[in-house]
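Lab notebook, bench 4. Still working through the backlog of constructs that have no structural model yet. Next entry is a single chain of 279 residues. Request: give me the structure tokens for it.
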Amino acid sequence: MQKEKKVKITVIFISFVISVLFIFIVFLLNKDENVVNSVQKQNIIFEKVTDYNIFFSVETNINKYINFIIEQNYDKIYEILHSNYSSNGDNLINIPNYEPDTKFKAYEMTSYELNKNVIVYYAKGNIINNSYDYNILLETNVQFLIFIDYNNRTVSVYPLKENENYESIIKGIDSNYSIEKNSYNDLEGISIISTNSICLMYLSDYISRVSTDLNDAYYITTNFSDINDFEIYLKNHELSSVMKSCGKNNGIYTVTDDNGNSYKFLEESIMNYTVSISD
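Model written out:
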């Protein structure tokens, strides 16, 4: 009887020790995970977006927000904005007004994996209006954070002020963040980007730069000794955004417009290029 009692006490003690050890191990694992998340948050590293389909999908979803502004539909605007942004009343008061045919055109984009489902994209670009035969440049160096939840197929937009530290914004967001679906924040996809689409994109962008900011266009044009030579060429040759032919070889997109001008676009990264033009 005494022996059975000792065995019982021993079993209870061992069970207690095992339980304590299990709880302690779980605590350590959770602590390690929190430490890893904390370290990752302290060292936020954005990577350049190199996939055309991702680049233009992000741009498309930012323009979804721009379209809500054009509609002046504040319910839609509120539902697509990131909650940390929309919770600040001053931000909602300062939402800009845009005319129809206003769009955001990105020229720089990077990404950061917030968690296994959510990617944060930083996009920088210009606001243009293309309601006429040529683009009107409205704002330059406009910046957004856009959060895409690939599990829920949802998005949220965080417009950035000039020189705003977007890394500090991300550090303030829970690493388990997800985006619940509502009526207006579904992720909009795009069709696969072809070589022809890329050629047309660069031709259109270049013609837009020539028409809105000649110095900017000259800066990326490599085959003129000075801006005067560049201006002389433009006076004697009518550039067109209508593409006649297109090809790609060794990273160079060669385009001919319908007026016979030939363009060679050397791409450094998406929307970051230099060009030479000739007749």
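Notes after review: The CA atoms of residues 246 and 255 lie 5 Å apart. The radius of gyration is 27 Å. Flag for follow-up if needed.
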